[in-house]
Design brief:
14 helices; 85% helix
Length: 393
């Protein structure tokens, strides 16, 4: 792989760390800023919404900018967002900082995959994209627990300073290693995106993505307080448990891709069913440290195992229903993932604040995943119903 790919991987690592590290820091942030856990959970929702709406709009608006200056500008925005977060004297300022960082996140992954593919021969494009996204996976395995540990020892602001420093490293790597002659793909206009949203079949899959992926975040957003207040783990143990969870996520991402290769709908039915069951089980096992670790390993695997299948299914349906906008459909599905995070974190906050309490977040999440399962079964039935007419045609 060209060294330029590794510059993109470093940037993906920094971005992945800042997105998910807040999960391990919620109790610390809530205590320091004198806010409730549900309000702290909105820090996750606001970031995800920034990615959801910022990515398609800003990608369309920045389509005419040369690729390398655009990436350098995005990493500058990322560093500014995380620096403001580290300096935030109030909850409101922290929310603003998270939105700024989220705007950089959304556009980076929209254009980064295209750049990675253009840096290598055609037969190695998939590997190049996978290498870039490996930064995101490694961030979940290492960046999040390390950032959580730093925040617990030195305060949550220290974590954001560390992430901002990672952003500076990524900026230098991109400036030094990325060639100046990168091709620009024709930008997708906002009108193209609206046309994709006009497809009922694709809307079903976007809903599957948001609910199936977001269901886990009802509980995952509040995983640190669940582990401390319900299970009884010490604060110092949380970062180690996040390592276990991250390894399970990485395994799920790889395993999910292999499972979904032949028939994504069939794979998604099985994965969503298992995910809903495990979330339901977690409601009962959360009181036992040993059973919690076992359940979290299964939940980590399942929560990201559906990602490759959902993305593959969207591409397949887009080729059939919106053949001129496959890339746009794929980008909007990424937005749906982040919308799911926002919905899950927001709903989890409502549950924590309600009489149901913290321990009920897993089974509420299971309901969202169950709805995604029903939508998947329905979508598969529509595919089978359309198949005979396609053969006749």
């Amino acid at each position: 792989m060209p060294l330029a790919i590794f510059a993109l991987t470093i940037a993906a690592y920094a971005i992945g760390t800042t997105e998910f590290v807040i999960v391990g820091l919620l109790p610390t942030v809530a205590t320091d800023l004198h806010i409730t856990l549900p309000l702290a959970g909105l820090i996750v929702s606001v970031y995800a919404l920034g990615v959801t709406f910022g990515a398609p709009i800003l990608t369309a608006l920045t389509g005419k900018i040369e690729r390398k200056p655009l990436l350098l500008g995005l990493m500058t925005l990322f560093v500014i967002g995380n620096t403001i977060a580290a300096l935030s004297p109030s909850y409101e300022m922290l929310l603003v900082a998270r939105v700024i960082a989220a705007f950089a996140h959304g556009v980076f992954f929209s254009v980064g995959a295209t750049i990675a593919a253009d840096l290598v021969p055609e037969n190695r494009r998939a590997s190049a994209i996978a290498m870039m996204f490996m930064g995101l996976t490694v961030a979940i395995v290492t960046g999040v627990p390390i950032g959580t540990y730093i925040g617990q020892i030195y305060g949550w602001r220290a974590t954001f300073w560390a992430v901002a420093a990672l952003g500076v490293v990524a900026f230098v790597a991109i400036a030094a290693l990325l060639p100046n002659t990168l091709k620009k793909a024709p930008p997708a206009s906002i009108l193209d995106q609206v046309r994709v949203l006009g497809s009922g079949r694709l809307l079903i899959v976007f809903a599957m993505t948001a609910l199936g992926y977001g269901g886990t975040f009802v509980a995952f957003t509040f995983l640190a307080p669940i582990l401390q207040d319900v299970t009884g783990f010490s604060q110092s143990s949380v970062s180690l448990i996040l390592v276990l969870y991250g390894i399970a996520i990485a395994a799920g991402n790889i395993g999910g891709g292999k499972i979904a290769n032949r028939n994504p709908v069939k794979a998604l039915v099985g994965l969503f069913l298992a995910q809903a069951i495990v979330l339901l089980v977690f409601s009962f096992t959360a009181v036992s440290p040993v059973l919690t670790l076992i359940t979290l390993a299964a939940l980590g695997f399942l929560s990201f195992a559906n990602v490759p299948g959902l993305q593959l299914y969207v591409v397949q349906l887009a080729k059939e229903h919106r053949p001129g906008a496959v890339d746009v459909a794929s980008a909007l599905n990424i937005a749906a993932f982040n919308l799911g995070i926002a919905i899950g974190a927001w709903l989890g906050g409502l549950v924590v604040e309600s009489p149901l309490g913290l321990a009920s977040t897993p089974w509420i999440g299971a309901i969202l995943v169950a709805v995604a399962l029903l939508l998947t079964i329905w979508s598969g039935a529509l595919d089978r119903r359309a198949a005979p007419s396609l053969r006749v045609a």
